[in-house]
Amino acid sequence: MCRLSAPAPLGTATTSYAGPQIYIANSVDEVNTDRGPKAIAMDCEMVGGGSDGSLDLCARICLIDEDENLIFHTYVQPQISITNYRYEITGLTEEHLKDAMPLKDVQEKVLQILYNGESVGRVRLNGGQARLLVGHDLEHDLDCLRMNYPDHMLRDTAKYHPLMKTNLVSHSLKYLTRTYLGYDIQSGTHDPFEDCVSVMRLYKRIRGQAHNLEGIVTWAATNSSPKVISSSDPWRSKELENMTPDELYKVSRPDYRCWCLDLRL
User: Fold this and answer.
1) Model-level pTM?
2) N or C end: fewer C-beta atoms under 10 angstroms in the chain?
3) What pLDDT, in 10s, does the model give residues 135-167?
4) Where are the domain boundaries for CATH 3.30.420.10 in the chain?
5) Cα end-to-end span (Å), the chain
6) Helix, strand, or coil here: 55?
7) CATH 3.30.420.10 is held by the domain 23-207
């Protein structure tokens, strides 16, 4: 098992936290990758809104680069009233969010970092110089941020097939970190920097694995989204029985895009 040391959390105490409430790196151009697009990891911490406090509202966000350098960190002022700070999980109180950055400003800053000066059309087409976005359950985080980012630019540890259960249900980030990285996270309050480091390490570990790429690159060029076929489908079972060995080999190729291909772009 790979065993890495856990990163030092940012903390939440407004009096003892050594860094500024809002941290924005001067540049993210120092991210180093020999090949392929550069990646940014993001994690959000949620508080509760609505009458019962069950509505997830982003109250804290963190972004890091591939070298685990902090790029952006701030508390976020939600657009609706907070009814549950979920203190046991977030460690946040009203004091943390008193002068927090408005959600609209957070959206603009995050998109500025991710798009990296690239046009929207180019990013949607092939990514260009934009950053890959790494995270755990990114759809949920982006929804809470009220943001969109192209699916082909997302690297989600909650949705990547080799990291999921056999029934394609997601594992928790805590489980994935313990299993594949060898240390524990989220033992007390959740820390977004700690979670960012975990998802980035998971992504880089999988991206760096050596695979037999024969046929996979051609497949990836013509398949932008995964297809899940149920083996319990009787029609599908009959179809498989009538296939030749060559046809069976073709359909047995991965039905997801392997992250190792990011180094070949």
Assistant:
1) 0.78
2) N
3) 999 999 999 999 999 999 999 999 999 999 888
4) 23-207
5) 29
6) strand
7) yes
